[in-house]
Amino acid sequence: MNKKLIGFLLALLAGGGILFLPEIQHLSGAGQRCLAVFAAIFLLYLFESVHVAVISLMIVPILVLFQIADINTALKGFSSTSTYLIIGSFVMAAAMLKSNLGDRITYWVLVQVGTSTRRISFGILCVNLVMAFLIPSSTARTAMLLPICIKIIRLFQDKDVKSGRFGANLLMTLCCTNSTISAGILTSTVTNPMAVQYIEAATGQAVSFMKWLEWGFLPAFLMTIICWLLIQVFFSSNIDGNGHGREYFRARLAEMGPVSSRERNVFLVFAGTILLWVFGDKVGLDSTTVCLLSAGVLCLPMLDCLDWDGCQKSISLSVVFVCSGGISLGAAMSHTGAANWLAESIFSVLQLSQYSPEALISVLIIIVQFMHVVFVGTATMANVFFPILVGIAQVSNLDPALTVLPAAFMIGGYPILMFFNTTPNLLCCDTGELKARDFPLFGCVVSVVACVVYIACVYWYWPLLG
Question: Which of 59, 82, 180, 443 could disulfide-pair with 325, CB 3.0 to 4.6 Å?
Answer without folding.
Answer: 59
